[in-house]
Design goal:
This protein is α+β, with helices and mostly antiparallel strands. The chain is built from five helices and 15 strands. The protein binds magnesium ion (MG) (2 copies).
């Protein structure tokens, strides 16, 4: 399994893409209010990406041929939607949790990040789901360092979530990222025999998109008839947070934090 390692200069280029992703997510945070449609959020994101001289990585994924593939700029996944929700006429309501995932390319290098926005009065148990998922991402970032294997980090993420009763989504995982959005390796948020057989050596210059997805109920998910939108099988809420991170000499550097 070929995992490419990025130079200092290449990581700086990825940070430029990461800055645009961060700006888009922050803009979405400001405009995601009750009454707004997911399409309005998506259109504003597209304008911002273009104004920053970047290119969105989701529309027409995976072929990037016009009229094919994913039909929107962002993935917007509301409540029971886990990932890959398609913007449309859905109106955001008070109490919704809105997952926003954004990937862009700048000068041939990619950045990918996601957050789950809590709109208005979110039920305490759903708020805790979001906060826990964000914490699981932070836990991963704090524990990445050269010499470790990813399974050690994944085990921490999985046990933190499962000890608190959340479902850790198995069907979707993080990924290597660089010149392309999806590179080797697959980066699961849980430990499997497959991961232990093909563990990821965390070496300086490895760049990963780490993206825990936690469900309030079952970890099981299904894809709707639109071919994209992934929802929880029990239709209980889900949360998703993601950062693009580079392994450095002494830990991890977050490339999508706006710095
Ligand atoms: Mg993403
Ligand atoms: Mg990703």
């Amino acid at each position: 399994m070929a995992i490419t390692r990025k130079s200092r200069e290449e990581i700086q280029k990825m940070r430029a893409a990461g800055r645009v992703v961060h700006a888009v997510l922050e803009h979405c945070r400001r405009i995601c209010k009750p009454g707004v449609t997911t399409r309005q959020i998506d259109e504003e994101a597209e304008s911002l990406i273009q104004a920053r001289g970047a290119r969105g990585l989701f529309r027409n994924y995976p072929t990037y041929r016009p009229g094919e593939g994913f039909p929107a700029t962002l993935c917007i996944s509301v409540n029971e939607e886990v990932v890959h929700g398609i913007a449309g006429d859905r109106v955001i309501r008070d109490g919704d949790v809105v997952g926003i995932d954004c990937g862009v390319e700048v000068d041939g290098w990619c950045g990918d990040a996601a957050t789950t926005l809590m709109v208005g009065e979110v039920k305490p148990q759903v708020r805790l789901l979001c906060e826990t998922t964000q914490h699981v991402l932070e836990l991963a970032i704090e524990n990445v360092r050269p010499g470790r294997k990813w399974s050690q980090v994944a085990r921490l993420m999985q046990s933190y979530a499962e000890q608190r009763g959340y479902g850790v989504v198995r069907d979707f995982v993080g990924h290597g990222i660089g010149r392309r959005m999806h590179e080797e390796p697959k980066v699961p948020n849980f430990v499997s025999r497959d991961l232990l057989r093909n563990d990821i050596e965390l070496r300086e210059g490895v760049v990963l998109a780490v993206e825990p997805m936690l469900n309030l109920g079952t970890e099981k998910v299904e894809t709707l008839d639109d071919g994209w939108t992934v929802v929880t099988l029990d239709r209980k809420p889900s949360a998703h947070y993601e950062h693009t991170i580079a392994v450095t000499a002494d830990g991890a550097e977050v490339l999508t934090n706006g710095r």
